[in-house]
Amino acid sequence: MPIRPHARPSLTAFEFFAGGGLAGLGLQAGGFRSTFANDFDAAKARAFRANHSGTPMVEGDVWGLSAADLPGRPDLCWASSPCQDLSLAGARKGLEGVRSGAFWGFWRLIQALDAEGRGPRAIVIENVAGLLSSNQGRDFAAVCTAMAEAGFRVGALEIDAALWLPQSRPRLFIVGLRGAEGQERTAPALPFHSDRLVAAHAALPPAVRDAWAWWSLDAPPRRNADLAALLEPDADWLDADASARLLDLAAPLHRARIEAATTPGAAFLRIRTEHGVKHQRLEARFDGLAGCLRTPAGGSSRQFVVAPGPDGPRLRRLTAREAARLMGCSEDYVLPKSQSAGLKLMGDAVAVPVVRALAERLLAPALTGARAAA
Known about the structure:
Layout: E1 11-16, H1 22-29, E2 32-39, H2 42-51, E3 57-59, E4 76-79, H3 102-115, E5 122-127, H4 138-149, E6 153-160, E7 170-177, E8 184-185, H5 195-202, H6 206-210, E9 214-215, H7 227-230, H8 240-247, H9 252-260, E10 265-274, E11 277-285, E12 304-309, E13 312-317, H10 320-326, H11 339-347, H12 352-368
Parallel strand pairs: 1-2, 1-4, 2-3, 4-5
Antiparallel strand pairs: 5-7, 6-7, 8-9, 10-11, 10-12, 12-13
Helix pairs in contact: 1-12, 10-11
């Protein structure tokens, strides 16, 4: 079901590293109104404006912004800071990397707002789960320490979009609240407090653990949509020769899995080391899920759809519209004209229903002094 805006959003939000505005879609559905957005990528800024015409978008490096560029006092600041240096597919330079270090440009603005008495009562930092372990956990500790020292009660949730959408997409959400009481658990609990999050928490400095909250978020009802339900019925399949070349890259186990499939599945190219030699391999899954969407130039190539055909397995590339559906966008979301640009936009984004759940079930109730309905 498409995500629609909340009827009367009363809370305000700033979106940093906003991309194409998918976080904003989820926030709107959960009771927030975005009053400012920023991204340094021109293509993403165009996509944001195409889908959020009423929200001011300032294009440029976050380090070039000052408090004077930010209007009023937001209830929430959302930051989906670049993840390339933190992802398991990246170089793992952590927050010292040029791109992921942009977090500190964002944090400088939070400090400036605080100095003017305009600081937010809620902050969400969204990133890949690799933040928990990058630089031996020091990056995660640095982010949580900064938030705790600024007076936030801080906690984190590791959330997989697969609970809502047919895409395996685990992400980390660090949530800070001050002057507002969010629903908490007395101890970590699945599915949102993973073993690696619990381990990362245990390694935090004592002062941060004292400010820690195991935020409570109810799991959604069982997902009833699978990958096949989101696929275009009339997309163009690769010709027989192109399909054969791809199938030749599949290891025996995956080739057998593809040959035996009776429903469509997802396939992707990976580099695997076998007997000390790196090989490009086609790998497939038929569990109703797509693999985690990534940018076409990222650590994993764009995905393929693989399905049984009249003359054997056939393959095609996943389309940008299918990727948008896998991120929870409605059909009226305006995509770039280029397929590669659309895939890049979606591969860098945050899943809309996940943001809605956080906004609707944790953030909005805390900030309004209410409690989410059971």
